[in-house]
Amino acid sequence: MLQAFRINKVEKRGCDRIKNLHENHRSRVRKRFMENGLEGFADHEVLEMLLYYCYPRRDTNEIAHKLINEYGSLYNLFEADTRDIMRRCGTTQNVAVLISMIPKVANLYFRSKWGRNALVMDNVKTVGEYGVSLFAGRTNEAFYIFCLDTGRRLNHVSLIAEGTLDETPVYPREIVSEALKHQATALILAHNHPGGTSKPSRKDVEATGKIIEGLRFLSIRVIDHVIVAGDRYYSFATHNQIVEGY
């Protein structure tokens, strides 16, 4: 009986020692983040810290490595479907939902960043950065139009289609309807290439030409067509392609 008590006491000390090691490690990681942000953090370290909020006591290093190894990068992981994360990595629903929320929260943050005042879209830098914010967190392709007034102020952002341009054709009449509805005198087209290059495909160029022709009889100008891929963007105007430009 006494021997069993001693064994249990030793085991408890061992568990307490491990617990203290985890807590000390977490404190050091949090302090590092508070002093320097994520500068110098490896992908698995970012994920390890994020998972602290799903696993209050468990060592999250192993599961962070498993998730990164399975998807290859933070980008691929954050873009993954919640159910896919659970199936491929055996995580809890809480972990998968937290990971999937990251790009969605980033999207809300970037859109909120622009504020409520009318945005003047008279240069490619503003338009490109706005486009990157708009598409942050999207895992599917989407096509938007930015409706502008005579002062190039943004009146409205209209979602025209989702999917790819092949799967969901963008018909000029839909764009005409939205442009008239929001009293646009000029438009900027925007769509994304999730996980791909920002350069336009042949079909992107052809679709842009059809849209310009469809709007010509209403004297609604297409200022630019911006294609977003992650944090990069391609401007038709900058490359002197089809559109009127700024």
What does this structure look like?
- The protein is 51% helix and 15% strand.
- It has 246 residues and is α+β, with helices and mostly antiparallel strands.
- It has a 5-stranded mixed β-sheet with strand order 2-1-3-4-5.
- The longest helix is centred in the N-terminal third of the chain and has 35 residues, at 2-36.
- The chain is elongated.
- The model has no long low-confidence stretch (mean pLDDT 85).
Question: What's the short version?
Answer:
By secondary structure, the protein is an alpha+beta fold. The chain contains 9 helices and 5 strands.
| Count of alpha and pi helical runs | 9
End-to-end span in angstroms? 86 Å
Given the helix and strand composition, which structural class is it?
Answer: alpha+beta
Radius of gyration: 25 Å
What's the level 1 CATH class of the largest domain?
Alpha Beta
The biggest beta sheet reads: 5 strands, mixed
The CATH architecture designation of the largest domain is 3-Layer(aba) Sandwich
CATH level-four homologous superfamily name of the largest domain: Cytidine Deaminase, domain 2
| Total domain modules | 2
